[in-house]
Amino acid sequence: MSVYEKMRQALITGKYKPGDRLTEEALTEEFQVSRTPIRSALKQLEFDGLITPLRRGYVARSFSRKDIRQIYDVRSLLEGYAASLSAIHRTDEDLDNMYAANAAFYSTITEQEDNKIEHIQAILQKNHQFHQAVIRASQDPHTEDLIRKVVVLPLVFHSFFWFQQRELEQSFHLHEVIIAAIKDQDSARARSAMHEHIYQGRDRVLEQLEREKG
Amino acid sequence: MSVYEKMRQALITGKYKPGDRLTEEALTEEFQVSRTPIRSALKQLEFDGLITPLRRGYVARSFSRKDIRQIYDVRSLLEGYAASLSAIHRTDEDLDNMYAANAAFYSTITEQEDNKIEHIQAILQKNHQFHQAVIRASQDPHTEDLIRKVVVLPLVFHSFFWFQQRELEQSFHLHEVIIAAIKDQDSARARSAMHEHIYQGRDRVLEQLEREKG
DNA sequence: AAACGCTTTATTGTATACAAAATAATCACT
DNA sequence: AGTGATTATTTTGTATACAATAAAGCGTTT
User: Fold this and answer.
1) Which member of B44, B70, B143 has the closest CB to residue A140?
2) Do B81 and B39 share a structural domain?
3) In which order are the strands placed within the sheet that holds A21-22?
4) For residue range B192-211, what is the model confidence (pLDDT) as tens digits?
5) Residue A75 pLDDT > 90, yes or no?
6) What is the mean pLDDT of residues A153-168?
7) What is the pLDDT of residue B101?
8) Which of residues A60, A84, A108 is at a domain's end?
9) For residue A49, which residues of chain B lie inside 8 Å, CB to CB?
10) Confidence band (pLDDT; 50, 70, 90) for B162?
11) Cα(B60)–Cα(B73) distance, rounded to whole angstroms?
12) pLDDT greater than 70 at residue B78
């Protein structure tokens, strides 16, 4: 695992908390490499939007409620668009991938592992793989690239929320709707279902935030 | 001007042509700095999508017709979305900026400078400033950031085309429509006018490409 | 005691040497 | 002469020393 991947993981899992200062020197200590690869990793993380550049160095980025809302909204726009393209371009192989990814998602969410952190990670990963399968089928690498930039929100913001069984099953169901629309080459429906799916995720996150802060 | 900006300029203006190999050593010669800032600039240009990473080093990126089409399409989506947000959030100051930017655009296109390269650059710059004014008014830094990634197409692809007076005036007119819709807080109209405007740009580029290649 | 300027320290920017790895070139062998 | 393995060369990855600059600390002045 590269330094970049390790730091990314640390930011996403919350090991570095928003506002934490990240100095090159300290990171060389932590990862036992020189400043050169650290600098490279920091630059990439800046691009990902996970850290904020200061006049001197970086801090782990903090996300306001407004940030989260805006990020989810534009993500919904882009993934909806990708889904509509997929409905046009999908091959049989693409459909197989989506079915397989959603089946894997289902078996993970029905595992009933008492919300252990590994279980949550597994669910998030399977969910991600489903979305990737849809995005890939769009055959549009540029859109794919933009979406990647917009799904990097730290785990804190989408982990401990929607892990009510009912909501997981709702996600599974919407995945099915999305696949069906793409199969039927109904691009308007694919787009709208994807929009809806992501907005539901957004709302859960925002509700949870409301509960925490207020 | 930083090394990054110089290299970016060189790529956009076509000094480095698609497929040209970019080695760190050669660039240290050219810019008379060490490899460290060169590496930093290359990484940034990779994020911008202006260069393609190889197993060893980079090449100046080449854009296929398909690439151009897909990039313009998703740009239209994003800028249309930004325009619709602007219609909701715009302040009087935002409107002033848009009017001013479009007025500057108009006086530049009516200068009749016989399509000198500086004139073309000036037109592109004024056009860019208008778009920035609209995007800014959206108050959505994340969308703004995504759009930046998608307007970096080298100059070659959008310079010598739409410099027919008639088409420039068409652009000016659509700018006016966009501003009016934003002023009226008619977000659907703002979005659709912006879509249309960018698609027109896309089509001119694609037509020109058709003419060139055969 | 607050504010200003100076000195010190911390931290990044740059250059460069060396290690590792990929590509190119060479030579031996068939 | 063509092919494959081996060596040489090019090129990037990494470490580190030094320079430049920003931030912090400190004392002096008002």
Assistant:
1) B70
2) no
3) A21-22, A58-60, A51-53
4) 999 999 999 999 888 888 87
5) yes
6) 72
7) 98
8) A60
9) 142, 145
10) low
11) 23
12) yes
Based on the fold, state whether residues B82 and B152 are members of the same structural domain: yes
- Nearest CA-CA distance, residue A188 and chain B, Å: 15
DSSP state of A52: E
A36 C-beta less than 7 Å away from strand D: yes
Cα–Cα distance, B121 to B124 (Å, whole number): 5
pLDDT score for B154: 76
> Which chain A residues are Cβ-neighbours of B41 within 8 angstroms?
none
Let me know whether B70 and B54 are in one domain.
no
**Chain B residues closer than 8 Å to A74 by CB:** 78, 81, 140, 142-143, 146
Residue predicted with more confidence, B204 or A114: B204
Domains identified in chain A, total number: 2
Cβ within 8 Å, pair A74-B39:
no
For A20 and D26, how far is CA from C1' in angstroms?
Answer: 27
Using a 7 Å cut-off to protein CB atoms, list the covered nucleotides of chain D. Answer: 10-17, 22-23
Could you tell me which residue, A181 or B120, shows the higher pLDDT? A181
Cβ-defined contact of A70 to B145 (cutoff 8 Å): no
d(CA A43, CA A62): 17
Same domain, B169 and B208: yes
Helix (H, G, I), strand (E, B) or coil at B21: strand
Bridge partners of A156?
Answer: none
Q: Residues, chain A, total?
A: 214
